[in-house]
Amino acid sequence: MAKVTMILPYICLLLLMLTPLGESAKKKRKQPNIIFILADDMGWGDVSWADLPEIPTPNLLKLKQEGTEMTQFYVQSKCTPSRAALMTGRYAYKIGAGSTKVYTRNRNNSLDQSLKLLPEYLKDLGYATHMAGKWHLGFCSKKDIPTARGFDTFFGSWTNTKDYFHHDAGGYDWNLNDKPYFAANGTYNTHLITNYTQHILTQHFKDKATKKKPVFFYVSYLAPHKPLMVPRKYIDNTDCKKLKKSEDRKICCGMVNAIDEGIGNITETLKELGKLNDTLIIFTSDNGGSDSVAASNWPLRGSKQTVYEGGTRARTVFYGPKFLGNAPKEYTGLTHVTDILPTLYQVARGNTKRLPAELDGMSIWNKLKRDRPTDRHWMVYNIDSERDLAAIRLKNRTHDFKLVYWKKDRLPGWTGEGDPEELKYRRFRYKAPADYYRLFNMATNPTELEPNATIPDAALLFPEVKQEMKDKMKELWLAEVPRPYWADIPDSGPGRPKNNNGAFGTGDCDVDWV
Predict the structure, then answer these.
(1) Predicted local confidence at residue 100, as pLDDT
(2) Is the pLDDT confidence value at 414 over 60?
């Protein structure tokens, strides 16, 4: 009888594993599909729910209404640094990518090949990985391109193009995996990106060999980055035509509208495939809106390439009701683009304790689902010795401060187009403090207005905070990795357009230069 009593618990456990409850738990552990959508130079005010709503984004609005908006989500202030931080989970300034000097098409520059990237981590967890759109992390060597850095397929441009229809960048730049794809010539690149995403998703989930495998898709739109180009229907057939501002603003509106259409098409494809409920969709921008494309960051100060909120705070939406638990409609926890890698690793059922300790990002998944503050108390906007510029944030239960350092006579703001009420918040050029440090109390002055009769100087009220943050900034600065020396690629390189049927190719850094 005693022996029967001893084995009874094991029998019960076995029966439990064989019951539908065990099967349900197994389903609950299923890895979600992940679609990460990135816009390029899209401003804080370029959505339909902005403070001054001008641009119609109904599909993105629907994702927001049924998901969660991350109202304190930060990116780097420029294209390549944000992409580097996204792919590595590390601050760009720590990996030689913090400078405004980005990876160009004519120099031997690229993201450090020794760093493991987001798609590689997800492949380790069993994901199929695909990318469409703008890469901008180097292509000089065959080891630099997306299909060598963790993506199963790639369809897009190595860098920026100067033409949205003909994909010219001083040479043709639209590629399928590692080769130029000339058939794309003449098709608007936002359409190319959307259509390829739909095609691969359909192929993946209808193929018996892959349909049970989770998919990670990085959808990297080039719009609304300059040049301002869009099929006219996105202006004439939408509310964009009603804008009374410049023609540039109307075109920017149309470019964002085309992205929004793409978001709707991708979600509809997932729905038709029966996979929308099994998918986590994330949308954000690589940096703030640029004045060169008449984007709007109102009422935030600054724009692309500045460390002010308008250059670094991005409209961000998480959609996936099945996975978000008790996440709020608006999540106010301080989050950064470096958090995406560890967060998605956890979403994909990976153990974040196995990630490198050197990562600057942290998983926010559990905090988001429970609507609790993140564990991030210090955040680096950027540190850039080439411009002698830095900005950091301190946020805890008692403080929320931002320190900006700029060793110039005058600190720049932004002077984009707009109506007088809007420009009141954009036009800033002021004399720097004697020590070049400016402290902002983000709890009471989130738009970083200058001290005036109603906004006291935070540095005078909180001198101890300013000193603490100055000391912290100097400490953080020690971790900066300078931008590597970049040499110009000679005309003899095999990837130069004249040697590659008029297109930019890879492999220039895989041969000896003469």
Answers:
(1) 63
(2) no
